[in-house]
From TrEMBL:
Pfam families given in the database record: adh_short_C2
Transmembrane segments: none
PROSITE patterns recorded: ADH_SHORT
InterPro entries according to UniProt: NAD(P)-bd_dom_sf, Sc_DH/Rdtase_CS, SDR_fam
Gene3D superfamilies linked to this entry: NAD(P)-binding Rossmann-like Domain
Name this polypeptide is given: SDR family oxidoreductase
C-alpha cells in the first residue's frame, strides 16, 4: 500500500530548481571577506540575489572588496555593506550583526569564514598564547557570531549558517596541527549547533584542502605543481570552488542538510593523504 512518504519521486509536483538556488531577498554576513575564499563567497551569494555584509579587520582592504563586489553585481552598491571589525572582539561581532539588521532588515545567512594560523610546526614547540588565539578566533568567535545572529534575528525567523573548517580538521597534517585541532573543534561545534538550533536554523561546515589564496600561500608557493600532484583532480582549489558549495548549502536546495561537514578537497582525502 502506497503512502505519501513512499510515493515515487516522479509522482511529486515538479520543482523549480532555479528558485531553490535563488537567494533574492535574503541577507548574508560573510566574515573574513576582504579577499580569498571569503570574498569569493560574498560574490557567489550576491550573484544568487542576496544582500551581503562583508567584515574584516582592515578598513581600506574591506572598502576595496566592497567596491569590487558591487561592480561585479552590476553596480549594486545598495546590496553590499562593509563593516570593519575584529571577529575575536565581542563588540565588533555585535556591531556587524546589528548594522546588517539596521541596513537590510534581516540576517538570514551567516558564513563564519574568518580564520587565523600564527602557529606552525610540532605542537611540543608551539607557543601556547598563539594556540589560544587560534582557538579564540577560529572557534569561539564563530560561536559568538552565531549567538549574535540568533539573538538578533535567526532565533525567531530561522536561517542558515556555514562554518569554514578544513581538511586539517579531519586528518592530521603535522605542520599546521594547532590550526587543524581548532578546525576539528569547529566541525564538532557545527554538529552541536545543528542539533540545538534545528529545525529552523541549519548549520553546516565545509572543509577545503589547499586553496590558492594568500592565506595558504606558504603551503604551495615553493612548488605548486608538486603540491597538486597527489590530488586526484591534479590541481589546487580555487576560492570559487568553495564559494559555489557554500552557495548551495545556504540555499533551499540543501533544505534537508544540517550538521554536516562537506569536503571540497579535490579528492586528496580519498588517497589517504593530506
Amino acid at each position: 500500500m502506497s503512502t505519501p512518504d513512499s510515493a515515487p519521486r516522479d509522482a511529486a509536483a515538479p520543482r523549480d530548481l532555479t528558485a531553490l538556488h535563488d537567494l533574492t531577498g535574503r541577507v548574508a554576513i560573510v566574515t573574513g571577506a576582504s579577499r580569498g575564499i571569503g570574498l569569493a563567497i560574498a560574490a557567489e551569494l550576491l550573484s544568487r540575489g542576496a544582500s551581503v555584509t562583508i567584515s574584516a579587520r582592515k578598513q581600506p582592504e574591506l572598502e576595496a572588496a566592497a567596491a569590487e563586489l558591487a561592480a561585479g553585481a552590476g553596480g549594486a552598491t545598495d546590496r553590499v555593506l562593509a563593516v570593519a571589525g575584529n571577529a575575536g572582539d565581542a563588540a565588533s561581532r555585535h556591531d556587524v550583526v546589528h548594522r546588517t539588521l539596521a541596513t537590510f532588515g534581516a540576517v538570514d545567512i551567516l558564513v563564519n569564514n574568518t580564520g587565523i594560523n600564527p602557529v606552525y610546526g610540532p605542537l611540543m614547540d608551539a607557543d601556547l598564547d598563539g594556540v589560544r588565539k587560534i582557538f579564540d578566533v577560529n572557534v569561539v568567535a564563530a560561536l559568538g557570531f552565531v549567538q549574535e545572529a540568533y539573538k538578533a534575528w535567526m532565533g525567531e525567523h530561522g536561517g542558515a549558517v556555514v562554518n569554514l573548517a578544513s581538511v586539517a580538521g579531519i586528518r592530521s597534517s603535522g605542520v599546521i596541527s594547532a590550526y587543524g585541532a581548532s578546525k576539528a573543534a569547529l566541525i564538532r561545534l557545527t554538529e552541536e549547533l545543528a542539533w540545538q538550533l534545528g529545525p529552523s536554523i541549519r548549520v553546516n561546515a565545509v572543509a577545503p584542502a589547499v586553496v590558492k589564496t594568500r592565506f595558504a600561500e606558504a603551503l604551495y608557493s615553493a612548488d605548486e605543481e608538486a603540491t597538486a600532484r597527489p590530488y586526484p583532480m591534479k590541481r589546487l582549489g580555487a576560492p570559487e570552488d568553495v564559494a559555489q558549495l557554500v552557495g548551495f548549502l545556504v540555499s533551499d536546495a540543501a533544505s534537508w542538510i544540517t550538521g554536516d561537514c562537506v569536503r571540497v578537497d579535490g579528492g586528496i582525502l580519498s588517497t589517504g593523504g593530506l
